[in-house]
Specification:
The protein has helices spanning 2-33, 39-48, 53-70, 73-91, 102-113, 115-128, 142-161. By secondary structure, it is mainly α. The protein has one domain. The radius of gyration is 16 Å and the shape is globular.
């Protein structure tokens, strides 16, 4: 049950981070395109426009976590060692080459420039500290762990549809 509470805390922190990133990206888009974006247009941009493609990686990860969170406790226990590496994979590091991590390339400048994003980032890091760092074999990368979480979530999602 502690893992469920920790995942709920992490999910809330990620939603707030996503909201602040979305607002910052919206503001940047409006400034660059000299337009005001209404909520319906923002939804269309978030789902289809290349200017927001980088944010979809976080959206997809959050959806995967929601599916895992809604699964039975034994499934959540089996996923606990891949949650932290999956998140660490998309966040990357501030010095990661931009081409290798599109999300991180946009994310880290926002963390450094926008106090709202920095505060939300801190909340995610604090929530993430509840998840232990798993022992990894050298052959296992954070990207592989992210794919593993995605596969697990999609399998659970198909199971609910059946």
């Amino acid at each position: 049950m502690a893992e469920t509470a920790a995942l709920d805390t992490l999910a809330r922190a990620l939603r707030e981070l996503h909201r602040t990133l979305m607002e910052r990206a919206r503001s940047d888009y409006e400034r660059e395109h000299l337009t005001i974006v209404n909520p319906g247009e923002l939804l269309r941009l978030l789902t289809t426009d290349d200017a927001f493609a980088w944010l979809r990686e976080l959206s997809e990860l959050m959806a995967d976590l929601d599916i895992v969170r809604d699964a039975k406790a034994e499934v959540l226990g089996g996923a606990s060692d891949i949650i932290r590496p999956a998140l660490e994979h998309i966040f990357g590091t501030p010095d990661a080459p931009p081409a290798s991590r599109p999300f991180a390339a946009r994310y880290w400048p926002y963390v450094h420039d926008d106090p709202h994003v920095a505060i939300a980032h801190g909340a995610v890091k604090q929530a993430l500290n509840a998840w232990p760092r798993p022992e990894q074999h050298e052959s296992e990368s954070a990207a592989e762990r992210r794919r593993e979480l995605s596969v697990k979530a999609r399998a659970l999602g198909r199971g609910r549809q059946a």
